[in-house]
Amino acid sequence: MTFLGPSGCGKTTTLRCIAGLELPTAGRIFFDDRLMNEVPPHKRDVGFVFQNWALFPHLTVAKNVAFGLELRKVKKAEIKRRVREALRLVRLEGFEKRFPAQLSGGQQQRVALARAIVLNPQVLLLDEPLSNLDAKLRKEMRAELRLLHEDLRITTVYVTHDQQEALTLSDEIVLMRAGKIQQVGTPVQVYNRPANHFVAEFMGFDNFFPGTVKAADSGEMLVEAEGVELSLRRGDQEFKVGEEVEVAIRAHHIKLGAGDHPGRNFLKGRVEALLYQGDQTLYFVELDSGRKASVVCEGPPVKQRGEMVSLYISPEKATLIKL
Amino acid sequence: MDKAKERIAGIPFWIVVLGFVTLVIVPVLNTIIYAFSMGWYYPHLLPPRYTVCWFIRTFQVWRLHETLMNTGIIAVLVAIGSISLALPAAYALARLKVPGESFIVSTLIIPLFLPGLAYGIPAARLLYRLHLNNTYLGIALIQMLPITPYVLLMLRGVIAGIPKALEEQAATLGANKFQTLRRVIFPLARPGVAAAAAWAMARSISEFALTSLVAGPRTITLPIVLYSSYDTAGMLPTDNVALAVWLLVPTLAFMSFALRYTKPTTMALKGG
Amino acid sequence: MMFLKSVGFLYLLPIGIFFGCLFMYPMIEGFLLSLHPEGAGGLSFANYVRFFSDPRMLRTLRFTAFDMGVVVTTISLFITIPLAYKLRRKFRGVVLLRTLVSAPLGYSGIIAVSIVYLAFSGWGLFNLFLMRAGIIVRPLDLVGNYTGVVLASIYQQVPILFLFILAALASIDPTLEEAAKTLGASEWQVFKRIIFPLALPAVTTAGILGYITNYSCYVTALIAGDPAYRTRTLMIEAYEQAYRRFDWSMATTVTTISAAIGLLIFFVYLRLQQRVMRRGSYG
Q: What pLDDT is recorded for position C6?
């Protein structure tokens, strides 16, 4: 499960409450059926990976990983075996005698991971563990983390502000904002059917057109927005006729056409500006109503500034958001 | 259960904390109350009467006005002397590439690692030969032996704290070495230098051991009076305290001024 | 030669001259003097022989180097470390406590000794209070002996060591402690396995500086102790040789011996500094 949200939304704080590093002002925390509120952190059997990895600088990699085992008075031979196994899982065999200062960021992160999982905790908590890595490394580690999770099958709570990470790694996403949960759902749900404007914007929706529900059938919805009737696929939410909504659609889901296509699901506008981005082009279109829309099309620019265009809003790709 | 155990484990720590805080407060409290007390004996928890007669006595019996003057003059001499010696050296060490820098610094701070009298007694011999005993200069010189290295370390920190880029910028704007010193470095270093001076004065005012080696009848300082008040017949503990207060107040004043500008960990050697 | 040519040389000249004339020269002279004992008329180690065969002198040496140097420093550290540990993180009132603990920094030497002496003497507030509270009947013998010296010494020392060690403890990344806790370490185990090892370089340096301060003890032992017998330090001995017995040769013998020990400690300190510089935060 991933807690996703912007900085300051409370996701790290919640994680730390689960670990016992902070006390919640209200509410209770259960591991299975056991109430954990009064249990101090060193008795909670959680594995925590910190954002800065928190490796003990005065201990070798092996000693770092073995730290929890030594505290539990595990036998030396057993410690050695388990440490080796944990390092193998994170692909750091042979690094036992090194010190954290001699490791790269990615390696340190993996040691922190090994240190947490070697104890077979009930819950694994990861606080933005990839945010200190460069983009390429982050991509690699994302895949590794996912594979590791599938191997180990430990209940894992992950915290991040990066929606890509959340989408890749999660079975379930909890979106948070300013301490309140905005939506809980699978990555597909959160990505395609955001529950509100904030979630939609956070998950990358670029265009929002306010409108009114004209008809709400079993499969199809009619919404009037931007002076045009839009027929949209209906989601799980209930809408009443006359309700104020927003039609949200991603920039690369809008199809750009010649300016003279009338009809349902077509918005009209004029190209204000365009930016060539390599394998795609970003168009800024000013609609008849004055609202601005962003459209991304593959390939080099096919329209010019000032040209009249039509924007096709696909019924499946657009989503309705309650206001 | 666990929480209670953890709290109990913390108790010895807190006993130590409270114990030491008591150790700190009691003498100060005692001094202040005593200095103004009259007839304070057991079983009175607080003095039955208060008075300032002890302070008046310090002037009458102990010739405090002379002593204060002596102590003050010497302190000023020490401050001026140590800063004059240390400031250029600090500048060189902080800014210029000096070969063997760490060796030089290590040598200059040796006096901080030796007992005062270990270098004080030999130095006193020399000062006697030069007839500098019983003079302000002599006492100032011997006090400067432990004080100058300290001031050096402090000033080195102060100058190092002025970004070199400022000097370079001044140079590109047309200032020569002297102008840069006057307009850029001195103003920026002033608070730090003032703090070092205040510290040097505080240290000088409270210096007993070294002063006693070269002091004479004309150059009695406050610490010497305080010490001799222990031995003198007819001494009352209250005399002692009044003198101590005379010593305490200016020292505290100078030190708190100094501490506002410098980090105290650079002054990690004192007392004895 | 390169040194003489560098500009820095000029800046260092004043302090160099001062140091050379008033420190180095007298020290060397003193050492030479110690080799010319009174009435021996020439180069001789007689003073040193006298020193090391006189039980009283040896006792003074032992008292200074051990009872003062080692014991008092250890007591100070045992007080300072818990203090710094408890006050290393912010909580309500921590600033006040820190200020209180480091207050004696503001005055030291004879002032500190005097006020401690007075406060814990027979007519001081401490005994007064205890007698009033009925805990004791007669005043405790807290000054004029070793106890007095210990009290006065830690009064002066703990504030400095405290700030030093506090800085070291506060600079330890708090997430390291949290990580240790999540791995199952209780508070004591966190202290033992993480905090103390990481603070060890600072504690060691503090210990050495503390040793030097206690070893150099003069005024404190003079006023708060029993300088004639029980709390006689090397410096007290040196002073009396010079100013009471006027045997300057013997006096410089004592100062040379104590300077030698001081220099030894100094070298240990330098070596430790080098090690810390090379190995970074842990040494």
A: 65
Summarize the confidence of residues A242-254 as an average pLDDT: 88
- Asked whether residue C173 carries a pLDDT value surpassing 80, the answer given is yes
**Partners of residue A116 in chain C, C-beta under 8 Å:** 182-183
Per the CB < 8 A criterion, the answer to whether C137 and C131 are in contact is yes
Subunit contact C11:B92, Cβ cutoff 8 A: yes
**Which residues of chain B register pLDDT less than 50?**
1-2, 267-272
The domain of C123 spans: 27-282
Shortest Cα–Cα distance, A44 to chain B (Å): 13
Question: φ and ψ at A311, to 5 degrees?
Answer: -115, 120
Contact between A106 and A141 (Cβ < 8 Å): yes
Q: What is the pLDDT of residue C4?
A: 58
Q: Find the mean pLDDT for residues C93-112.
A: 82
Amino acid at C46: A
What ipTM describes this predicted complex?
Answer: 0.86
Q: Are B123 and C23 in contact (CB under 8 A)?
A: yes
- Partners of B38 on chain C (C-beta within 8 Å) are none
Q: Does domain B56-267 have CATH number 3.40.50.2000?
A: no
Predicted structure pTM score? 0.82
CB A208 within 8 A of CB A246: yes
3-state secondary structure of A319: strand
Q: Identify the CATH number of the domain in which residue C225 sits.
A: 1.10.3720.10
Domain count, chain C: 1
Closest chain C CA to residue B146: C23
Q: With an 8 Å Cβ cutoff, is B236 touching chain C?
A: no
